[in-house]
Specification:
Blueprint lengths: L5 H20 L5 E4 L7 E7 L9 H14 L9 E4 L3 H13 L3 E6 L4 H9 L3 E5 L5 H11 L3 E2 L2 H8 L8 H8 L10 E5 L4 H12 L5 E7 L4 H9 L34 E5 L1 H15 L5 H20 L3 E7 L13 H6 L5 H13 L5
Parallel strand pairs: 2-10, 3-4, 3-6, 4-5, 7-8, 7-10, 8-9
Antiparallel strand pairs: 1-2
Helix pairs in contact: 1-2, 2-3, 2-6, 3-4, 6-8, 10-11, 10-13
Length: 365
């Protein structure tokens, strides 16, 4: 890249102002209290990230990645922005690219929901589809090289683009909103891992501020993150060669160990069957009238197990997790019985597990 000119700096200054002004206009996302049986002695809170302008948790990441690219001089006037994304990050990045008047191209698999592709195009972006998740990285990098653009590379930069010490990150927001609650320091915060950026930010924040809160990360079946964390917990060096299979839960789980995943800041991981994610997603809509996507279901499958553990130990406290995005984006797949059958996903046995848990307060063996 050529040396930054005075005109480049003027443009970057204005771009940063626009992004910060957009953030300044935005209210924080809600932290919902989900009613649980009083005798359990546990409160559950869900931070509703679907209320961002682009409808998901990835709005925060996209904002941070654009600011990171701008302050590093990687994004300039006219730069084509390219990203490898299964959907939500691309939706949010398309929005910020449009805000700055920049072209945006998302590289994703053909299995990405039509609803997400439509949202990317609604914000002025375009999509390049590949057959296998392992192809998105090199395809995005090559596309950026060929058009002299900037590959955002969320999987590398997610853990460093956000200030983990505070500066209005999601962890600071959670603790601010809990300040007047009965249990303002939660026993657990539960998140999934897509890039690893959210878990890295929250885990570092907890340690930096010396909170007694534990971080649990949930991971879809066959993802590379869970075995990588097991290796780290057992004292082995974390291998960047850890591999898994493509995730059937959009937005989380990866077929390879991503650079932004930081196992050492995670206290506990739970591997979640894909059909259980769907069951918990559907149960949330019936139980709390919150319409969420499948990654929220993955979160909740872990949440209910951790709450069962608190109940079994007789401990009072609170648990916080994320409502990552809304269910409307998944009408054609995860909320479609026909699609679930085509994917051999049967949530019924897992819904029975949830029914037993809510009836007894005990997680079935």
């Amino acid at each position: 890249m050529t040396r930054e000119s005075a005109q480049d700096r003027v443009w970057a200054d204005e771009a940063i102002r626009r992004i910060n002004a957009e953030n300044n206009r935005s209210a924080d996302t809600h932290l919902y209290s989900v009613p649980l049986p009083e005798h359990w002695g546990v409160q559950l809170y869900l931070k509703d990230e679907s209320t961002h302008r682009t409808g998901s948790l990835k709005h925060r990441l996209a904002r941070s990645l654009f600011l990171f690219g701008l302050v590093n001089g990687w994004i300039r006037e006219g730069t084509t922005i390219v990203e490898a994304s299964s959907g939500s990050t691309a939706v949010s990045e398309a929005y910020f690219a449009q805000l700055l008047g920049l072209p945006f191209i998302a590289v994703m698999t053909r299995t990405t929901s039509r609803e997400k592709i439509a949202l990317i195009e609604q914000f002025g972006g375009s999509c390049r589809l590949v057959d296998h998740p392992s192809e998105v990285y090199e395809a995005a990098a090559e596309l950026a090289r060929s058009c002299n653009g900037h590959y955002m590379d969320q999987f590398t930069y997610a853990e460093r683009a956000t200030d983990w010490r505070g500066n209005n990150n999601i962890a600071e927001s959670i603790f601010g909103q809990l300040a007047l609650e009965e249990h303002p320091v939660p026993s657990w915060i539960v998140v999934g891992a897509g890039t690893g950026g959210t878990s890295a930010t929250i885990g570092r924040y907890l340690r930096y501020h010396r909170y007694d809160t534990k971080l649990a990360v949930v991971d879809p079946e066959n993802s590379a993150f869970y075995p990588a964390w097991l290796d780290c917990r057992d004292g082995s060096a974390v291998s960047s060669n850890a591999t898994g299979l493509p995730s059937r839960i959009e937005g989380i789980g990866r077929p390879r160990m991503e650079p932004s995943f930081v196992p050492a800041v995670i206290d506990h991981m739970i591997q979640v069957p894909d059909a259980a994610s769907v069951a918990a997603m559907r149960h949330l809509q019936r139980y709390a009238r919150l319409h969420a996507g499948p990654s929220t279901g993955t979160n909740l499958w872990g949440v209910w197990q951790l709450i069962a553990g608190l109940i079994a130990e007789g401990r009072r406290g609170s648990v916080v997790s994320l409502l990552c995005d809304g269910g409307d984006r998944y009408a054609g797949n995860y909320y479609s019985p026909e699609w679930l059958r085509s994917q051999d996903l049967d949530p019924a046995p897992h819904e029975a597990t949830l029914g037993e848990f809510f009836a007894t307060g005990v997680w079935p063996a």
